[in-house]
Amino acid sequence: MSLEIRVPTLPESISxxxxxxxxxxxxxxxKRDEPILDLExxxxxxxxxxxxxxxxxxxxxxxxxxxTPGELLAVIDELPAGKEAVETDDKPAPALADKLPELPVLxxxxxxxxxxxxxxxxxxxxSGKDGRITKQDVMRHIExxxxxxxxxxxxxxxxxxxxxxxxxxxxxxxxxxxxxxxMSRLRQRIAQRLVQVQREAAILTTFNxxxxxxxxxTRSRYRDEFEKRYGTRLGFMSFFIKASIQALKRFPIVNASxxxxxxxxxxxxxxxxxxSSPRGLVxxxxxxxxxxxxxxxENRIIEYAERAKAGTLEINDLTGGTFSITNGGVFxxxxxxxxxxxxxxxxxxxxxxxxxxxxxxxxIVARPIMYLALxxxxxxxxxxxxVQFLVSIKEALEDPAxxxxxx
Length: 407
Known about the structure:
- The protein is an alpha+beta fold.
- The protein has three domains: 2-99, CATH 2.40.50.100; 103-146 and 174-182, E3-binding domain (Dihydrolipoamide Transferase, Irregular), CATH 4.10.320.10; 185-405, Chloramphenicol Acetyltransferase, CATH 3.30.559.
- It has helices spanning 94-99, 108-116, 135-147, 170-175, 185-200, 213-230, 237-250, 294-310, 315-318, 383-398, 401-405; strands at 2-6, 17-22, 29-30, 35-40, 45-49, 54-59, 66-67, 72-78, 203-211, 257-259, 262-264, 271-273, 275-277, 280-282, 285-286, 323-327, 346-350, 353-360, 363-377.
- The strands form five sheets. Strands 9, 12, 15, 16, 17, 18 and 19 form a seven-stranded mixed beta sheet that branches.
- Helix 2 (108-116) packs parallel to helix 3 and helix 7 (237-250) crosses helix 8 (294-310).
- The chain is elongated and about 80 Å long.
- It starts with a strand and ends with a helix.
């Protein structure tokens, strides 16, 4: 009996996905719940597992295909009851191999390049794993073909024409290192949203600077005790989250969003924290962040960062959010204008900390200074509110005791 593997139901607001990886080949045995292929949506990569042990008969889709819920992805033949699929490096049984033509296995890039240059891959030998034909194998074939002299035919000489440089062929272009790769779904979505927000919102940015001396002294004083209690180190981000929430309570318009001709106010504080992942920048959301203490915030931030790197964030982790914070300082950014994360109306940008000379009590001293940037939608937020909001964050961070007594 055959089992059909189809595109699962996708989360709300996501209509399709792209096949980005095939983990098996036709004829391979598979175990129950073993990943068969990966689907990439606008926000996350979804693994599609085998619902039952068996043998993968065929794929109905290839890498790069766009699919919608319910479409056929692959077919698996069930194993007889009581038998389990065992992973081996052996080829399919002779009886099955006799029925199937022996075709070379190509990587997606190799297949695309071979198709562009109309190359018969039947005579190519692969240097990849298990004889897999790679893009380099195809490139080597193109280069060797270009170096092989073509048969000389005697023809009547033609009148001399003006010398013109030969056109650059696609093969020559490839050999010079030009590569064409499709954008990931996440990168496409980021591009769409960036263009959208630039087109629809009236974005302004206001700046300020923070003397980080008090926060750094607080961290040093309580570092060991904090780590012992919460199992994680005390970072800067939890301070900025707490200070932002306090400022959002004072200026609720910054926590609001525009919906047509209406203003949507939020009486909760779901804070998006921008983190880097191999697929691009993602913004997981700390829900009800005002109800978490410093230790809970630090642990949740670390968990999101680890899951972003592992590619295991889920759709619900990335949806919603009323205000966002991004820290370009971890990459060395001194100053930037962060872009809004729609439909949010404001985003706070942190930057690198540098020792700078400032005046304290009439004396010039060196202090760790960070520049802050608040980008906001001027359709909704007036400049006065934006400036005072950022000043509120500055005051709370330069005197952390304010966070305890709500000033």
